[in-house]
Amino acid sequence: MANRGKGYGPPLGNISEAVGNTPLVKISDRICPAAVVLSSPPSSRASFLSNPLSSVKDRLALAIIETAEKNGTLKPGQTVVEATSGNTGIAVAMMCVTMAEPFSIERRKIMRMLGAKVIVTPKAGKGTGMVEKAVELAEKNGGFSKVFLAQFHYDTTGPEIINDLDGVAKLDYWVTGYGTGGTFHGAGKYIKEKSPDTKIVLAEPQAANLIGSGIATERNADGSPASSHPAFKAHPIQGWTPDFIPLVLEKGLDLKLQDEMVEIPSTAGVEMSQALARKEGILTGISGGSTMWAAVETAKKAPEGSVLVAMLPDTGERYLSTPLFADVKAEMNEEELAIARSTPSWIL
Ligand code: PMP
C-alpha cells in the first residue's frame, strides 16, 4: 500500500518517457527461505508504466534510438532493421524487423500491432540465418539505412540497481542470464565498478553451452572466439544462449566478469516462473523464472542474510502459447475450450 495514491507526477510528453526505473521487489520466503532476494521485474501490474512494452529491452531501445538520432547514424525516414527474438524488436517497434521462427507467436503479433514489418526466417537457418537476413535487408535499403543495435545497459540498468540499493542494502550477488550478453556485460561492468564485492552469477541452460563451452575459452590469437565453436543444442529458454556468436563476444568482451555459473535444468525455469506467478503474483517469462531459479540455488549456498538481485527480463504474457501456460490450458473446462476453439485467435 506504500505507494498508493502517489501517482506518477505530471503527464508524460509521450510514452517513451515512461521507460525505465523499474522497482526492485522483495521475494518472500515461500520462494527463497535462505536469503533476501530482490527481483527487478519489468512489468508486474504495478510497474507496467515503468516499461510500457513490458521487457528489459524498452530502456535499451530508447537509448539506442536516441543516441543514433543524436549522433546522426539514424536519420529521418531511414529503416531500422533488427534481428530479434522478440523483445528488442517489440521495443524498437520500427519499420522492419526480422525474427527466427522458433520464438513465440505473440511476439510477432505485438510487433505487427506496433507497425513493424515482421520477416520470419526459416527455423533451419537458426539465429545465424536471422542475422544474415537482417544484414541483407539493411544493405538493400542502401548505404546508411541500417542501425545495428549495441547495448546500453551500462548507462541504464546498472545504475538503476546500484541507486535503488544505495543506503538500503549491500548487494552480495547479482544474477542474470545471457542472450546477446548486453545485460551481463553492460550492467555487470557497472555493478563491478561501483560495488566490487558483488558476485556476478551467470545462468545458462544446461542443454546449451555457450559460456561453458569452447566458445568462450577457445580463442584465436587476436582474442576473437574460434570459429570451430560447437553447435549449440536446443533449449527452452527463449532469449537465452543464441546459436550465433553474440557481437559482444566477437568484440572480445570480458567473460570473466562472472564469479559463478549456474546451469538451469530443462523445466526448472518454467516451474519457477509458475511459482513466481502463483506465490508472489509476479508474472514473468521463462528466462525470468530461470534467473530466479539460479538466484535461489545461489542463495541456498550463500551466507545467511545475503542480498541477491535477480533480473526478470520480460512479462509472462509474452508466453501464452508456450509450455509456460500448459498447466493453465489443462485446467480450462469444456465450455472455455469451446469458446477458445471458436475464436480464431484464441491462443492470442
Ligand atoms: N530474456 C529474454 C526474454 C530476452 O528477450 C533476452 C534478450 N534476447 C534476454 C533474456 C537476454 O538479455 P541480453 O540479450 O541482454 O543478454
TrEMBL record:
Every copy of the Tryptophan synthase beta chain-like PALP domain together lies at 51-314
Return the Gene3D superfamilies for the record. 3.40.50.1100
CDD domains referenced in this protein's UniProt entry, alphabetically: CBS_like
| InterPro entries in the cross-refs | Cys_Synth/Cystath_Beta-Synth, TrpB-like_PALP, TrpB-like_PALP_sf
Q: Which Pfam families match?
A: PALP
TM helices/strands, residue ranges: none
Question: What is the protein's given name?
Answer: Tryptophan synthase beta chain-like PALP domain-containing protein
Say which species the protein is native to. Answer: Thalassiosira oceanica
